[in-house]
Amino acid sequence: MTTPTTASTWEQLSEIAQKHTPARRVRRPGQSPSTAPIPSSLHKLPPDTTPPVLLYRDTNSWCPFCERVWFALEEKQIPFETEFIDLSNKPKWYTDLVPTTLVPAAKIEGELVYESKDILLALEARFPSPSLLPEDPEENAVARQWVEDAETNGFRNLAYKFLRETPTDADELANLQTTFEASLDELEQTLGKYPGPYFLSTFSLVDIMYSPHLDRLAANLPVYRGYQIKGNPRFPRINAWFAALNERPAYQRVRSDDTTNNLLLRRRFGIEPTGNALPLNTADSNAIQYRAEAAERLSDNHEVAIADIIKNSGVQALAVDGDITTIKEAVDLHLRLLAEYLIHGDSAPLPGGRTGGQNSIETTISAVGAIALAYVRNRVCAPRDMSAGAATTFRAAVDQVLASLY
Length: 406
What we know:
By secondary structure, this protein is an alpha+beta fold. The chain has helices spanning 10-18, 64-76, 92-97, 116-126, 137-152, 155-164, 170-190, 205-224, 236-246, 249-254, 258-269, 288-300, 302-312, 325-344, 363-377, 388-403, and strands at residues 25-27, 35-37, 53-58, 80-85, 105-108, 111-114. It folds into 3 domains: 24-126, Glutaredoxin (3-Layer(aba) Sandwich), CATH 3.40.30.10; 137-202 and 204-247, Glutathione S-transferase Yfyf (Class Pi), Chain A, domain 2; 284-404, Globin-like (Orthogonal Bundle), CATH 1.10.490.
């Protein structure tokens, strides 16, 4: 079994990719995660200056409550640094520091604050400009009440009960759906109390309180309950709200993508899908900044990716006499071809040509590529590994490269 070597080197791919994307990450050798996003406002600090905020958050960037705080920090352009906490093995110093032992927590100019709502309000008090609460006193009071209501009105618990609990019969599930829809109706009505697409007259902490959970529900419910929020004519204001959020750069930095959200729900809670996976929203898949970001992240992490694929994908079964050298070379080649395709699109070479891999690439090499790419497609976690836009673009590119193998 021989491996063709027509792809560019990782160094060449990385150099080209970095020319087309502003996305950069800081390396964290020997730590998890191995990289972290650089806050968009960090450049505002003088050299060798400690950021005013230290955010304690989960290593996998799954936590919706941590996402709230990250969203606000990006919107308010507050320089910050992050300390990642392994939720499956929390360090004793952290459980001693934070009374709840939960994430998020933050040190704001040295003062410890925990619980996401309290952190958001503390950030607003300490860094009042740009404001995420209305200037008008009456609307400000409404905003503060709605921030409180987002924690106490039961919407979140009801939504996740509908999503995660296994009903004993169809009637119980129908009743859960009816109750959940009534709570969405209330949100729909609330969104109509002020002009514009947001809860208040401008984007605010209220939007930040709801966005992580509504995002996850909009991704999970079609797959696990056959229920649509996005595109549902019953909720035009909620859909306009989603569209407005999508235009915000800070939201694009912190949000996850639908595939990540759905894979995590199954892995963490053991819930089995009742419908098909959502189709990829490929509206941004041709945007060079996302294609280049995905290629740059793959180039930067190719050694870790290859080791993970060899260890966990089952591709070792294709090795002859236990020698994985050629298998490893084939995995490396297919990942480099994927990076080429991300950067160059349809002008990039593909392993199986464009008429079917059987006639243009050795069968075993094709099988190695199919296993490796299918595995890595669902290993990417946004925004832990790359932004949601880049992750969606990455998955769409994998689908195209896989199609060339068959």
